[in-house]
Amino acid sequence: STSDTKVEVNSVVVDCTVTSRFAHTVMTSVALNKANSSQEIFFEVELPKTAFITNFSMEIEGEVYAGEVKEKEKAKKQYEKAVSSGQTAGIVKAVGRKMEKFSVSVNVAAKSNVTFILTYEELLERKLGQYEILIRVKPKSLVHRFQIVTDIYEPQGIAFLDAHATFLSNELLPLVEKTVTDKKAHISFSPTMEQQRKCPDCDGTIIDGDFIVKYDVNREQSLGDIQIVNGYFVHFFAPPDLPRVSKNVAFVVDRSGSMSGTKMRQTREALQVILDDLYEEDYFALILFDSDIISWKDSLTKATKENVAEAIIYVKNIETGGVTNINDALLLAVNMLDKDRREKRLPERSIDMIILLTDGMPNSGESDPRKIQENVRAAIGGRMSLYSLGFGYDVDYSFLDVMCQQNKGLARRIYEASDATLQLQGFYEEVSSPLLLDVDLRYPDNAVEFLTTNHFNQLFNGSEIVVAGRLKDDQIDNFLVEVFGQGFEDDFTVQGQASAVDWDVMYPDEEYIFTNFIERLWAYLTIQQLLDKGKIGDPGDKANATAKALDMSLYYGFVTPLTSMVVTKPETEDGTESPLIAEKLTEAQRTQPGISGTWAVPASYQYSTYQPVYVVDGD
Amino acid sequence: PHFLIELPNRDDALCFNINDLPGTIFNLVRDPTSGILVNGQIIGDKKIPPNGKINTYFWRFGIIHRTLGVGLEVSTQDISVFQDRKYLKLLWSDTASIKGPNMDLLVTKDRSLTVTLKDSVKFVILLHKVWEKHPYHRDYLGFYTLDSHLFSSSVHGLLGQFYHGIDYEVTDLRPGEVPEKPDATMYVKGQALNVTRGWQRDFRRDVKNGENVPCWFIHNNGTGLIDGNATDYIVSGLF
């Protein structure tokens, strides 16, 4: 980017290669300083939060300045040095819901070129029956050579593919070229300078927004698909045509003062749609909380049309006020599910789940997040799943995230925006259709090692289970695979033989791509799971998991929350060096600070002590 | 620094910020009857952060109990104790417990100092340690008065004036600049103030992250809530 007309952007090329859901994206940008003096040139890129940067380099006057992944603490020392000498360092910032921004700047001599190359990798996650590749582009000026190229290699075959860009009108959509054959897709978008122009006589560019590719693969085998390359294997499991398991769901909804206004309106709207979408064989409960906990009915109710209609009227009349007692609300939900199960009111083969929706920190009843986590974990005792929707930025998302992970569930942040209703519905849609419970994927101990997680509490409709590992002997090219799970009526069992396919035969012209992608996919997945383990469990396990994640991040060159990428910039005229640092944000770092989280007209929130406390402190 | 007045009998809290130039010393507590004085000095960040906002924190407190003949100077570096002309220096890197006839001290390594002055007051000073090489921030202190019921009715100071409670009413809750941060009108000390519902952190149980305490935030250095102006509490020396 540049605001100076004396800097010309020669080319912006985004090259994304997806091999069995593992996406490797390289963004290359070349700029020329046409001025007679040196100038600062900025490179700003937005990349998905789920991605790890793996490389960044700059080429200036024939010299390449390459990045090196280092342990974060060690990199900090260089950062400190840079800051104390008055230099700026590269920074990654959160941008919106899905992306984070990487930005650097460098001083470029007169009449010189600079080439920036950023590489990142991620495993595409299947959600609601599709994978999504999101590339955000916003060059600040017209670009001589602008190109986005995506190549997808999926040995299972591509079931459908859709590519579009938010900045393209229907007339310009044909600029996106797609070639899809059975196991391969090629998508390219390469507008000329004239086609980039906003209007015939202006310099503004239309290229500003998201380029999105969505696709899914064929699923013919119940066992799923197992791929073996170079001593590593990956198993994708999402069997077709499984009936859903019925569910018993307790909705625990925050109606404290901070939910008033738009948030509660959106919650009401979403709940109405969600209730309307319940299957008749499902059971549900509605529990509302502020400092008081109230339940629509004393036990779970079958989702008949009449009951749902009655519940919708109830939901429409939810009023807000008061403070936030998450602990007792969740415990009531657990007790209600337990009691109904004990009294055999619920179908035997069904799944119990609690969906908590809150926007703030607990400040009534038990307000210590760690104690709430302990209480909820003890009460649930592994018998049900807890999902949480954290509404807005003031919620302590990591508190919800850990609590859900401790209870076979997951948390999602709901961003305050006009589409919050849709976000709420979307999350519910993702988790509302369990197909299998307690899914175990088993591989022979004598054949494989260093497995990623191979037990999953649920498989949801539209999602996919991924397990990867290393073969003990890289000469092995087949082994037995078994999958067990609990289905709607019967137990689900399937077994089969994994065998290596010959990628050279499948993709004869591109075999060079496939040398180590499964190993990197395995490493990516292992690091993600270790980072998650670093958040829960006992201190010893946490420390071990974090140490392993750090080792692997360094070995595979991933910029994770434990590592930083350091690039030494060219020496300035006064001879000082100034490193650039690229880092990965944690969820907590993404949270914006604010003064409000949990407000209410003083009502009944409790302090840990009845002694008044007078404080002066800093933030 | 932020000031937080927790009022459990009203299930509520008040908060405000006071900032001034680094180096300024504020009087926090002054009780002429019992002879207790607490002053604190603020410092700023190591340099101006990129957002241009200068943050100040307390880094040094001077505490005197004239009747008991006790004095304390607590800084982010160390803790100096004076009692009956004796002088003792403690380090934050120690864990120490000292019981005297008039004063008990408990130092928890790199974390807190609890001071109990006989028949008068109990308070905790928290040490917030910042990464040594942090480009902007540095270590600072927090001051928590835990037991204030034996202060006399003449106690005053930025904190002391609240030791015997405060009467106020909050009405007219209305949307603020941000929908989730509503404004309201607070009637206090014969004035109507525009206040905002927010929170401030109490770090006693979790010195790193703190715990949020919802409070009514009084703008402009607590103007209207505190007696006079913040500048009225500036003093020339720590003791």
Mind explaining what this structure looks like?
- The complex is a heterodimer of chains A (619) and B (239).
- With 619 residues, chain A is α+β, with helices and mostly antiparallel strands.
- Chain A is built from twelve helices and 32 strands.
- In chain A, helix 6 (369-380) links the parallel strand 21 and strand 22.
- In chain A, helix 5 (326-342) packs parallel to helix 6 (369-380).
- The radius of gyration of chain A is 26 Å and the shape is globular.
- Chain B is mainly β and 239 residues long.
- Helices cover 2% and strands 51% of the residues of chain B.
- Chain B has one helix and 18 strands.
- Chain B has one helix spanning 219-222; strands at residues 2-7, 12-17, 25-31, 36-44, 56-65, 70-75, 78-83, 86-91, 96-99, 103-108, 112-117, 121-128, 140-147, 168-174, 183-188, 191-202, 211-218, 234-235.
- In chain B, the strands form three sheets. Chain B has a seven-stranded antiparallel β-sheet, with no helix packed on it.
- In chain B, a hairpin with a 3-residue loop joins strand 10 and strand 11.
- The longest helix of chain B has 4 residues, at 219-222.
- Strand 32 of chain A pairs antiparallel with strand 13 (140-147) of chain B, so a sheet runs across the interface.
Strand order of the largest sheet of chain A: 12-13-10-1-2-8-4-5-30-31
The helix-and-strand class of chain B reads mainly beta
Total strand count of chain B, please? Answer: 18
List how many beta strands of chain A DSSP finds. 32
Low-confidence stretches of chain B: none
| Shape by Cα distribution of chain A | globular
* Overall mean pLDDT of chain B: 87
Q: Greatest chain-chain interface?
A: A-B, 45 and 60 residues
Q: Any low-confidence stretches of chain A, pLDDT <50, length ≥5?
A: 591-610
| Average pLDDT number of chain A | 83
Structural class of chain A: alpha+beta
Major beta sheet summary of chain A: 10 strands, mixed
End-to-end Cα distance of chain B, whole Å, is 20 Å
Q: Total number of helical segments of chain B?
A: 1
Oligomer: heterodimer
Q: For the report, how would you describe the main beta sheet of chain B? A: 7 strands, antiparallel
Strand order of the largest sheet of chain B: 8-7-6-5-4-3-18
